[in-house]
Amino acid sequence: MPVEPTPIPELPTSPSRDMARLTFVTTINAWYAGWPAWRTAANALAQATYSNAVEAAESAAAAVAAKVAAEVAATAAETFASAVASATDYIGTSTTQVTVGAGSQAFTTQAGLAIAASGDRVTAMSRGSTAKMRGVATYSGTTLTITVDDVEGSGEHSDWLLVLSALEPVTLARATATAIAFAIAL
């Protein structure tokens, strides 16, 4: 909080050589008597000015730190948005009713995913449970078929997120994958 400066009192009239001797002595005594109060007020003003300058410098440093933090956050947000935009090429969704299990599993999904026509390992994750199926995929048009060789969970689901297996453990936590899939659905 800024410090309110103390006003400096005026000194009494200063003596002049043109004054009569008695007037000069009376004036100079009053003038000297005013100096202690003036000095105290001047020191208080100097301290208030210094305190206000320190506070202003601290506020400026905090503002610079906040600006840097905002710039870092903006860069991180841009990077994340770019990553999400790029990741959406590798993530598909499907509402095909599929029972979790090994073997050939076919899903209807978006066309144009950046999944090779065949040979990529793909993970199908149920967004409503912990069920997952992994395996080598073939992809043509809007049909993605996974030859499942790794299964987690069980049941029949129709809320699938289809992700390149290389992306699943490294860059996509289940919540992020669900959020991205939701963004794709919009």
Would you kindly provide a written description of the structure presented here, covering whatever features stand out?
The protein is an alpha+beta fold. It has a domain at 88-185. Helix content is 45%, strand content 25%. The chain has three helices and eight strands; from the N terminus they run H-E-E-E-E-E-E-E-E-H-H. A six-stranded antiparallel beta sheet has the order 1-8-4-5-6-3, with helices on one face. The chain has a two-stranded antiparallel ribbon with strand order 2-7. A hairpin with a 5-residue loop joins strand 4 (118-126) and strand 5 (132-140). The longest helix is centred in the first third of the chain and has 67 residues, at 21-87. It is rod-shaped. The two termini are 49 Å apart. Mean pLDDT is 84; it is low at 170-175.
